[in-house]
Amino acid sequence: MKSLELENVCKKYGEAVAVTDMSMHILTGELVSLLGPSGCGKTTTLRMVAGFVEPSSGSIRINGRDVTKLAPYERNTALVFQSYALFPHMTVAQNVGFGLEMRKVGKAEREEKSFEALKRVRLDHLADRYPRQLSGGQQQRAALARGLVLNPDIFLLDEPLSNLDAKLRGEVRSEIRGLQQSLELTTLMVTHDQEEALTMSDKLVLMEAGGVRQSGTAQDLYEQPADAFVADFVGRSNVIPGRIEDGQFRTEDGTSMPTVSGSSVDARYYTVRPEKITLSRDGDGVMGTLRERLYLGAQTEYTVMVGNASISVVTATPGPDDMRASLRVGDAVRLAWDAASARLLNN
Predict the structure, then answer these.
(1) pTM
(2) Domain span at residue 308?
(3) Residue 54 in contact with residue 67, Cβ under 8 Å?
């Protein structure tokens, strides 16, 4: 069942187009992420679903009901803001119950539901504290509880983890995903964080300049990017410009890349992920020169110049007996990869 449907939704501010021809649907219980660079229209799309921004054209339906013209309080949605937006003069419990109070829910029922929502996010023991007495992660969970207590048809998350440090972000990310799945919440999330989108989402919608570049599962976008923008934005990829000559892809300086079956004569880019490439001193493969080596703990990243093309390689950090441990900047190396793991792109 489709819980949320957007059909040809557009938003203009005068001559400026914020969102153009947005069409998508979210099934009941799915978490879909709107991913893209700043200014691509993802937050505007989220706010149109919430009812804070009215579309210039198109329609929005929730559980089959057209809500395009309805005010936010007439839609059963809950929006968790990037800034948390907790009231500083209210306790955590009062913040969580505020939406219920606006819906004229009685005090006893309001307190019971607020306590249950706080238990879900493991904050029931802090119900009487004020936001200033909470850590960033606890404030985020309080904001989540305030949305959960409304039992929304659509749960909306606007950059929910952007104010947290890296370690805490990972913990809260798992908590949000666990809650969303256990409660079967239909969720639309906005993020610019690729890792966040890849690990949390059932589907991704990658936006750029107000439009959709590609949508699908994380694996779809990672393994089968529609164009060079998608390949470069989702995860990391080597996107190498060039052309097809005599059935082979050649870089701009004429270096031949491992042949990809079904090569299109219109191909303008050759792309291969850094982790798909092996690096050695000798043997078969494309010849290059090591330009940079970065130790990242469990992994090591190498930058290799192949003609005029800069190619990134990511491998497990070599042990002391591995020949790669002795590589130095300026050394000649060989790069090899299965041609089946590369893709040719026309744009």
Answers:
(1) 0.85
(2) 237-345
(3) no
